[in-house]
Write a structure and sequence with these properties.
Blueprint (H helix, E strand, L loop, with lengths): L1 H30 L1 E15 L2 E11 L5 E5 L13 E7 L2 E7 L2 H28 L2
Antiparallel strand pairs: 1-2, 1-4, 2-3, 4-5
Helix pairs in contact: 1-2
Length: about 130
C-alpha cells in the first residue's frame, strides 16, 4: 500500500514542478527581459546509462551585474562552450533565467509533466486494481 501512495505523491510533486515551469515560462514570455548569454562550460553528470551534460550560461542583467546559471534540462547541442545562448529572465529576479529556446522550454515543461502523469497513472491503476 505504501508503494502506491509513494508513487502517487511523487507523480503529483513532479506534475507540480511541470506546472511551475509552465507558469514561469508563460510569465517570462510576457514580462521577461531578453539578453545574450555565453556558454562558459558544460557540467557533467554521470548516470547509469552514461553521461549527461548541462550548459552553464553567463549573462549580464539590465543593471550590469554578471550572473551564471545552469540549464534546467540536459543537452548541449547547439550550445558550444564560448558560444552565444539567448537568455530570458524576470527583471530584478536573475535566478529565474532560462535559455530562451523553444526546444529547451518544451523539455523543461514536457518531461516533468509526462513523468508525473506516468507515476500518477501507475499509482491510480495499482490502487484501483488492488495490486
Amino acid at each position: 500500500m505504501w508503494l502506491r501512495v509513494l508513487l502517487l505523491l511523487i507523480g503529483l510533486i513532479v506534475i507540480g514542478f511541470g506546472i511551475y515551469e509552465a507558469t514561469l515560462h508563460r510569465r517570462l514570455r510576457r514580462e521577461g527581459t531578453r539578453t545574450e548569454g555565453r556558454v562558459v562550460r558544460h557540467r557533467e553528470k554521470r548516470i547509469q546509462k552514461g553521461t549527461t551534460y548541462f550548459a552553464v550560461v553567463d549573462f549580464v542583467d539590465a543593471q550590469g551585474t554578471r550572473h551564471e546559471f545552469e540549464a534546467r534540462v540536459s543537452g548541449v547541442k547547439g550550445l558550444p562552450v564560448g558560444g552565444q545562448a539567448p537568455v530570458v529572465y524576470l527583471l530584478g529576479a536573475p535566478k529565474t533565467a532560462r535559455i530562451d529556446h523553444a526546444q529547451k522550454r518544451l523539455e523543461s515543461i514536457g518531461i516533468p509533466l509526462l513523468v508525473g502523469i506516468a507515476f500518477t497513472a501507475a499509482a491510480i491503476w495499482m490502487l484501483s486494481t488492488g495490486r
